[in-house]
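Please check both lines for our workbook:

___
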Amino acid sequence: PGNPPIHRPGASSRMTVLTSTFVPHPLPEVDAHGLVVRSTPAPLPEGPSTVSACLEAGRRDHPDRPALVWNDSTLTYSELDTRVAAAAGALASLGIGPGDRVACSLPNRPALVEAFLATQRLGAVWLGINTNLVADEAHWLLDDAGARLLITDPDRLAIGGGRLTIAVDPTTDGGADDEWAVLLDAGLPAPTVEVDPQAPAAIAYTSGTTGRPKGAVHSQHNLLWPGISSRHAYPAVDGEHHGTALALTILNMLVLGPLWAFLRGTTAVLLERTDPVGLATEVRRHRINRITLVPTMAHDLVAHADVEGGDLATLTQTIIGAGHTPAALRTAWLEKFGSRALVGYGLTEAPTGVTREHVDRPMRDDGAGYPLEPLRVVIVDDDDREVPGGETGEICLAPVTEGRWAGTWTPMLGYWNSGEATAEALRGEMLHTGDLGLLDENGQLVIRGRRTEMILRGGANVYPLEVERVLAEHDAVVDVAVIGVPDDKWGEVVKAVVVIEGEASEAELIAHARERLAGYKCPKTVDIVDELPRNPTGKVLKKELRKPHWEGRDRATV
């Protein structure tokens, strides 16, 4: 947007974006929304082919089995399917149809899951908005995505900025203030929509290069493969309960939580409490078998004296992702709870995890596991040439070429309204992650660092330019750089280094950020210096700022 399309000789009328950086692999065509124009991939080896059909088998084969649990509330597969149909009818009555963007900002509640599944039945595009975001951040996401509708709590309706809104308030027990309940109770028929599984289905905002995040767009086809592939890798057991404690406004958590459970025909449990005692209580109460945690949550469960080893006895699979997991933490988990916590590697653009630890294959302390069945990891050099095993390069992802998953895996469709970034990330028919790593002699992925400067604080992505943009708005700040520094609990925390004119204290600058950013994005510390180190071209040398903090630590590329 804002740049005229550039057409290759003989190209079709679809837009092709070229970048100024030379790459030997061809750049893909992108459309007017910055999304890649790709041929239809091979179908997934098992059904369903659309998210909208993910409840069909459960409704048919075990209609009375619990599908979704939240506190004391339980919906069977039959009941959930009926409510999703009513939700689709309600949204359609408000004018929502294929391609329309529907945003939702709610804690982990059944209404969020119902709304997500309803948008997929209509062929609409889902956008989750973290409830921790302040109004300015939420407004920007809604505007950038062009959302037509916002579903949220009554006290957050103002972030809709004048667009259509629906209030969700379960505390009223279905009263008039719970507009979502009223709409579903109306029982409006859902329209019949021929859903295109390759069309845009969801947007997940991730890192950007301009101080604002980019929207990674996924098709329904993309969202299905993790759950479908898990059936073979981790067969479901009788009475399986899959708990989700991480925010469902994160698209990956919807994919690895409720959608994952529904595709397996098991029970999804929404967990509200994330403090160690509360989380342990809910795991014990709901007899959770599988759960995904971030390192901070695992650290707190291990460290808290009031959490006993037997509290997590029902867990048969615990995945720790979204950040570096020290070997000492995994060892402490095994010693306290008697089960292994598995690690892996993933990213929003994939979507979700792409490698996973295998209990029956060699595992090294710095390993990130082995590629999941549908895809392969390719390590390339700066010229996009594949490097020999054991050598470090950029981590790229591509579909496998043999077996039942051959040619089925696809990454994101691209970055919403950012054609250059899409073409660069998907060049050569691979997903370029921007991360550095190697494949060892066993085929295991080892992460060596991040080309991007993203900070992972307790599993949450923090993008330095976004924080720098906010701090630069302070009248006293004339120069600023934001880096991640190590922290035993959070993995990394945000640190700002600023040059000021006049008066401004560390506390004042942190307070300034807290008024404009979610708490996890705000600097924990601020150093006030005379000048920032720069190279001859004027670029801030963040490596010099990070180096004193990371010497002797695990982050290889400081």
